[in-house]
Write a structure and sequence with these properties.
The complex is a heterodimer of chains A (248) and B (38).
Chain A lengths: L13 H16 L5 E17 L2 E16 L19 E12 L2 E13 L2 H7 L5 E2 L5 H17 L3 E14 L5 E14 H6 L13 E10 L5 E11 L14
Antiparallel strand pairs in A: 1-2, 2-3, 3-4, 5-6, 6-7, 7-8, 8-9
Chain B lengths: L6 H11 L21
Chain lengths: 248, 38
């Protein structure tokens, strides 16, 4: 008598949760830009038996952006999910895994991220600043001013911009631009950079000191920039890809 | 003789078949929301 097929795997079953955790770590490990993402919900799971002790799993995952930049050494479990009022960003991912002799591994993943709509955020929080395009003139001005401000005050290494992570603009009651950006230390001190900034090079990847800055720029009545930069310190095995050089 | 059974009878029969305190299982997917849904 043939045995009955196993019941379908539920999205909250421990096996699905374990596969999703592995998938999220895989996605973060293979991302070189933006922020780490955390699991929000398993949307769907499909299992295709391949034979004895071998099956393929297809997961549809809903992820949410955290506050940890992808270069941050903070473990994902310690990263706070970006709040709804900070204009959340969602990631939709399709992941293919295999379970061979009880060992799970990721075979492929494909993700798309998108910000929550302005209308959704405004409905709940009418005065909350909304996400702005990263190439917005005000955003670029704020990032430049913030980095210049930091470099002019620090006695440490001269920092160069790696990438802008996110930016929000508030129009009322005062005009403010909030920016977050990743930086890397160069082989120059701030003083040396003043003499010849073009000679300042990013340290090779295996020595790089990556860091992350948050800044707020007010423009009226006068321009005022508050910036806070933290270097993560030496991290073996962490690399940064120039935009456009990613392979996945 | 052919007798047409009423819908009410069938529903009643279905109710009786379920054990006392029966809670239907949650739908297998999607899973729970860990943070918030946007």
């Amino acid at each position: 008598v043939p045995t009955a097929p196993p019941p379908p795997l539920g999205c909250d079953d421990p096996e699905s949760e374990a596969a999703a955790e592995l998938a999220v770590n895989y996605i973060n490990d293979h991302s070189h830009h933006g922020y780490k993402f955390a699991l929000n919900r398993i949307e769907n799971v499909r299992v295709i038996p391949q034979g004895l002790n071998h099956k393929i799993l297809f997961l549809e995952l809903d992820l949410l952006e955290t506050e940890c930049h992808i270069l941050s050494p903070t473990p994902l479990e310690n990263c706070t999910v970006r709040s709804f009022t900070e204009h959340a960003v969602e990631g939709d991912c399709d992941v293919k895994l295999q379970n061979l002799d009880g060992k799970l591994s990721v075979l492929a993943s494909k993700c798309h991220s998108h910000a929550d709509s302005n209308e959704d955020v405004t409905r709940v929080c009418p005065d909350c600043p909304l996400l702005a395009n990263l190439n917005n003139t005000q955003v670029l001005t704020a990032v430049t001013a913030a980095l210049n401000s930091h470099n002019s005050k620090t006695a440490g290494a001269y920092l160069k911009l790696l990438e802008i992570g996110r930016a929000r603009i508030q129009y009322h009651p005062v005009h403010l631009v909030f920016v977050e950006f990743a930086v890397a230390a160069t082989n120059c001190s701030a003083g040396e950079a003043k003499a010849n900034v073009d000679a300042c090079q990013l340290l090779p990847d295996d020595q790089s000191n990556f860091g992350f800055c948050t800044a707020t720029m007010a423009t009226q009545p006068l321009q005022d920039v508050q910036v806070d930069c933290k270097l993560y310190g030496h991290q073996a095995g962490v690399t940064y890809s120039q935009p456009g050089q990613d392979t996945s | 003789p052919v007798v047409k059974r009423t819908v009410g009878e069938a529903a009643q029969h279905d109710k009786v078949a379920r054990p006392v305190g029966f809670v239907p299982p949650p739908p297998p997917c999607p899973g729970r929301v860990h943070h918030f849904k946007i």
